[in-house]
Amino acid sequence: MSEEMRPYRGLRVLDASQGIAGPYCGMLLAASGAEVVKLEPPGGDWSRGLSTRANGQSVMHVTFNRGKRSIVLDLKQAEGRATAQALAARADVLIEAFRPGVAARLGLGPEATPEDAICLSISGFGQQGPYAGQPCTDSVAQGFSGLAALNPGPDGAPHKVGTLVADVVTGLSAFAAVQAALAQRMLERGGAAPPQRRVLDVSLMAGMAGLLAMPLAEAGLLGRAPAALNLPAGSYQAADGAWVMVALVRETEFVALCEVLGLPELPHDPRFASFAARAEHREALLPLVRAAFTTRPAEDWLARLGTAGLLASRVNTPLDWLADPHVQAVGAAAPLRQPEMGELPMPALPGFGHWLAPAPALGAHTAEILRELAIPAR
Fold first, then answer.
1. Which of 118, 142, 182, 194 satisfies CB 3.0 to 4.6 Å to 147 for a cystine?
2. Around Cβ 101, how many Cβ atoms within 10 Å?
């Protein structure tokens, strides 16, 4: 990662969050040059216990906690709370993901930070409202937001996306909000404005609403679920069992697709004359398209679709992606050497490049951080 893209050198961040959304925001700040102290309970961030694990680390924890320092504090004890408050008192950014009201009870609310600090609260449903106290996870957020309803499987049931999209999108949204607050703070300092503490309320609900802004807006406008966007775009199984993903964004591309599939008569059928008509008559159209794709292997279809100028790709597994010649040629993933686990292929951060600092072992920096605070180690 270029040192030119590390503008937050010298910025102090106290990351008291666990899981993914808050830690991901903290990791992106670390990748941008900030000094991020991760506050963990004696049992560690619960993400250390999920996904593939070895020696107190997990792939989940490594992915979202690279480049941080770890301090273990028992916030059930007065001594642990006092130390956490000392860290908060010198933090430029405080990240917490407790249930609403818990941080304040622990003495880690905004009032514990400097008067111009950025205080980020991550929660399931926000700090206010009837659901504020309810627990939430990525799966619950996908269901609540409507994403699962937009992702029906072959069985007709709503399904969650196979990755932690609600947590990741919320973490990215939080990172953007923190950066905007830091930029505003810099402007105010340059103009000699009085210090102003900023409290950011970022929830998984809001993160998913941002991701689904278009279907939510369209459904609200129409008072019903909008039609499928661009049928028959989608994934189709080829003769060799591999799957091909096809995208369509213009009406003329449906005509070209039908030519490639050997179905030139379909665009002349009034039922299939437009995206809207095809959505209405999808049950008649999709079996024809599926049957056509079963007549040739995937690579043959990809070559023919490419020649016709259509957008298409093989449906890869994560291992397929890692082995793809383009991915390897551009160095889209690089080995991260995590002492407890070995090498993990880690994708580059978009626009930043590779951030290959390892994640900290549980409490690895506790003594070091206590010395910095002039607090004797027990």
1. 142
2. 12
